[in-house]
Amino acid sequence: MTQELTPDAVKRAPRRKKPSTSVFDVVNPATGEQVASVPDMSAADVDALAARLREAQPAWEALGPAERAKYLLRWLDWIVDHKDHLLGLVHREAGKSWGDASIELMVCVEVINYYAKHGEEFLAEETRRPHGPASLTKKLRILRRPYPLVGVITPWNYPLAMPMMDVPGALMAGAAVLTKPSEVTPVAWAEAVRAWNEEIGAPPVLGCATGQGETGRAVVDAVDMVQFTGSTATGRRIGIRAAERLIPASLELGGKDAMIVLDDAELTRTVRGAIWGGLFNAGQSCVAVERVYVEDRIYDDFLARLTAEVSSLRVGHDGQGDFTAEYGAMATETQIEIVEAQVADAVAKGARVVTGGRRTGEGLFYLPTVLVDVDHTMSCMTEETFGPLLPVMRVADEAEAVRLANDSPYGLAGSVWTSSDERARRVGAALETGGVNINNAMTNVFQFPLPMGGWKHSGLGHRFGGANGVRKYCRQQAFVTERVDLKNEIHWYPYTPRKGAVTEMALRLTGMHDWRRRLGRRAR
């Protein structure tokens, strides 16, 4: 069923006993139109919401993973049934093309299905064998108990997909989840949370705190574990506050992903991969291709093909379901100014714009841009861009490409393009990144059995991937039970000479390796 996008529909938020009196407007960056007004929640509002979520969490945990999975699948059914409504909100609040907006549904479908299918397996208790004779009478197990309240703070580039990458895993773990979407794009996610609480009969263990800086700080102070995705600067501040509170923090931060094009690459796919990896969603992806290193022998051919195809891309805010634009607006004026500053810096230092390089239209649109004659003195090659900019650098060989790719404080992901499996493995394994793609771009993010996380300044821990996508939201509990009901343990009181002698003899036979040393001396 498709719902009409009325102002009342997009303003709805999860129920609160005392709604904030302060609100802020969400504006479509492509058109300047107001999409919605949403509550600017205070710290007191956040604390009240957190208290309600904590109250509901024990019963949610007690349901067990199989029952929790049923609610996740009901939620997915609602999302699919209302996809045009939700994607319409994404389309408008982010100023995306309809094609870029519609891909966010794929993330919802794949993430929820993955964790609903595997959650019970990932949370099953584990057994361990005793490590030595002294523990043979013990049964050893590992139980996993969720952090009662998990905070999930997400950026503005994928309003629906970003929180969806984290929230299903935390819910499956049995935690209650307090989310904080970006103040730039909070509307679609607030509607998805409303649906959880009001449409599918789910327990009230998912909340959405809309607001700005104070709201985000209050979330970090209210939860037992925090998952943050966003800039490295903000991630540092959250990590420091989490350390002060002695709570764990998982941080997926900035990137400056390198694309290495070796001289045996198949150029048709490689060029299209560069365009997709660098320009999808106007380049506003943490794992976007942000710098391209091409071996000298094929540099001219690659550049000619890339320039021709980039020049043909359509930029605009097409109508819902139209698919008449490849990508849409940038999210904020600040972000488009960063792109402009990097282009200006590069040109001032000798780079050339071969296509694009300027704003277009009335909204926050920037033409897809290819820069050449670039080097590492330029900010476009060393600082995160988060925009539709492809700087292309000629390199002599794969060794130079690897050296330059690793010359970065970031290490989120990267890609290698070659027709040789041996070169792919050698070069890919040399990259200092949390993810490597061979003849593809950004795709490691969507391989849910694999870990997704950054090295260096690109983050701490792994955001998701396999069992860790659920277990990271749990505390491990060592659980020891007795196999034999003994009246006394040999090391318990009272101490006696006989017990001491027996204990020493057992240790010498089993742990002190006297027999091995004696055999060694006899052999000599």
- Beta strands, count: 22
Point out poorly predicted stretches: 1-18
Radius of gyration: 27 Å
In the CATH classification, which architecture of the largest domain applies? Answer: 3-Layer(aba) Sandwich
Query: How many structural domains?
Result: 3
Number of helices: 19
Overall spatial form: globular
Plain-language structure description:
The protein has a 7-stranded mixed beta sheet, with helices on both faces. It has a 6-stranded mixed beta sheet with strand order 7-6-5-8-9-21, sandwiched between helices. A 3-stranded antiparallel beta sheet has the order 3-4-22, with no helix packed on it. Helix 3 runs antiparallel to helix 7. It has 3 domains: 30-253 and 467-475, Aldehyde Dehydrogenase, Chain A, domain 1; 257-449, Aldehyde Dehydrogenase, Chain A, domain 2 (3-Layer(aba) Sandwich), CATH 3.40.309.10; 490-516, no CATH class. The protein is of the alpha/beta class and 524 residues long. Mean pLDDT is 93; it is low at 1-18. It is globular.
